[in-house]
Design a protein that fits this description.
Distance between the termini: 11 Å
Largest sheet: 2 strands, antiparallel
Order of helices and strands: HHEEHHHHHHHHHHHHHHHHHHH
Strand order of the largest sheet: 1-2
Radius of gyration: 22 Å
Number of helices: 21
Helix content: over 70%
């Protein structure tokens, strides 16, 4: 049994508990422990990625109770990839936070670790109920992180966020209860085997539960019509929290891939491909709503939040197509969009700190203290987000477009992606010219400049180029991930009597 599989859950849990329940720890020591834990999680995720890349599935039975009777963690290429994406994003966000954002309220570092625990657990669990448990852990931590630092706008956004996600949690429990009542199991691989042989009456109930889960995951992923909580929440959060939240929508998208390929996939009889007819139109409409929202945004942070929504639509389109080429393109774009969006939230905060009370408002303000440096960072990020060469966003969208066969899907997705990219560029160009060029003549006396914050933002932004330089191995990995995800036989063997994983 490979005990490394549980480390991404145990490490942030123990460090978060230590930071929470030892009140006399100085802020310096809290920062050191938080950074050490996050760096160690990055190293562990690299090791797990190398392990998963060998091609075999790896399971970890807690308490040595074997599936389907016990709680199981599952490592495959998909979960390993998302662990790495999360750990790298979290490290840069935390480096940014330790320059002062963490001191604006209590327990920032413990909450940050609990957030990572929930995210990592959601990516690793092979049990549907424990997916709910880890959802709740990450959501409870995110509630507090969203409110960290106080302020009326954060409280308003937080109330909206909490109420909607509590509703989603109730629906999640209801759906899981129906599925457990019919199948008698919560292990996802075992549930998939039982759904495949369900009677027509049971299949109807399982289909209803599956659609209810789609509503829940749609709320987490923030696609139309359940994305309305996201722009206000992400725009109101502090910069490092908003950067970390860039992975939050991917938890919902990951759940859609896991549940609707494994449980409601090709083998599910009369309810096979349950979500396919819903995901495709929702993906296109989500792209459209995201870019329109970005054009109408009045703050830079709000603009970026709507671009998160647009990226969710692009990813959902790849998932809806369901082919190996489309899934691998979506995974490449997922890596890009998570890291670059996180970097742009940090860059937006760097700009806001030099504009006084104008902050991120898209109105004329004072001359920036570092117009060339911040302008260059914003320019690179804008090109990457819009999907222009030579950065990773271009390759992600190109892969997605190349995954389409000639037909109705191509006629719809090509205009949606290309027009979305154009409108994204227009929105970012307007914002950049307002914030960096159309300024007053004087620098604000209270303008802030911080080299460590700038390095953290630039380091995360550099992944737009790194993904291009290492495109070949990254593409090979995501293509192998898509192929593994669509090959259900090894997942079924995890719960088949007499067969070793």
């Amino acid at each position: 049994m490979n005990h490394a599989l549980i480390l991404p859950v145990l490490l942030p849990m123990f460090v978060g508990s230590l930071l929470l329940f030892v009140p006399r720890l100085s802020l310096t020591l809290q920062r050191g422990l938080g950074l050490a834990s996050t760096l160690l999680q990055l190293l562990i995720s690299v090791g797990l990625l190398l392990l998963a890349d060998q091609g075999a599935l790896h399971s970890y039975a807690l308490g040595n109770w074997q599936a389907p009777f016990g709680i199981v963690l599952l490592l495959d290429r998909l979960s390993a990839l998302l662990l790495l994406v999360t750990a790298l994003l979290a490290l840069f966000a935390l480096i940014y936070a330790v320059r002062g954002d963490d001191a604006r309220g209590k327990n920032f570092h413990s909450l940050f670790q609990f957030q990572l625990m929930g995210i990592n657990g959601a990516f690793l669990t092979g049990d549907l109920f424990n997916l709910f448990v880890f959802f709740e852990i990450l959501l409870i931590a995110s509630y507090a992180l969203l409110l960290h630092g106080g302020g009326a706008e954060r409280v308003r956004a937080g109330i909206h966020y909490v109420v909607l996600n509590l509703l989603g949690s109730a629906l999640f429990l209801l759906a899981v209860g129906v599925m457990y009542g019919i199948t008698g199991t919560l292990n996802m691989a075992d549930m998939a085997a039982r759904v495949a042989v369900a009677s027509p009456d049971d299949a109807a109930l399982l289909g209803a539960a599956g659609l209810l889960l789609l509503v829940v995951f749609g709320l987490k992923a923030a696609f139309l019509p359940m994305y309305f909580w996201l722009p206000r929440a992400y725009a109101a959060a502090s910069a490092p929290v908003a950067a970390l939240f860039a992975i939050m929508t991917k938890v919902g998208l990951y759940s859609i891939m896991r549940v609707y390929i494994l449980i409601y996939g090709e083998q599910a009889g009369s309810i096979a491909n349950l979500a396919a007819d819903w995901l495709w139109p929702l993906a296109l409409l989500t792209i459209l709503c995201g870019v329109i929202g970005a054009l109408a945004a009045v703050t830079l942070q709000g603009l970026l939040a709507y671009l998160v929504v647009a990226s969710v639509g692009s990813l959902l389109a790849g998932i809806a197509l369901g082919t190996p080429a489309a899934l691998s393109a979506a995974l490449f774009y997922l890596i890009h969009s998570t890291w670059i969006t996180g970097a742009m939230f940090l860059i937006a905060d760097l700009i806001s700190r030099q504009r006084g009370d104008k902050a991120g408002q898209l109105v004329q303000g004072p001359l920036l203290l570092q117009p060339l440096l911040l302008g260059a960072l914003f320019f690179i990020g804008a090109i990457a987000l819009a999907g222009l060469p030579p950065f990773s966003g271009f390759f992600g969208k190109l892969l997605l477009l190349r995954a389409l066969e000639p037909g109705p899907e191509a006629l719809l997705l090509w205009p949606a992606l290309l027009l979305g990219g154009l409108l994204t560029l227009v929105a970012l160009s307007r914002a950049g010219s307002t914030l960096i060029w159309r300024t007053g003549r004087d620098v604000l006396g209270s303008a802030e400049r911080d080299g460590v914050r700038t390095l953290a933002a630039a380091g995360l932004l550099s992944t737009a180029l790194i993904l291009v330089l290492f495109a070949a191995p990254v593409l090979a990995y995501v293509q192998a991930t898509a192929a593994q995800l669509l090959d259900l036989a090894p997942y079924m063997q995890l719960v088949s009597p007499g067969e070793a994983p």
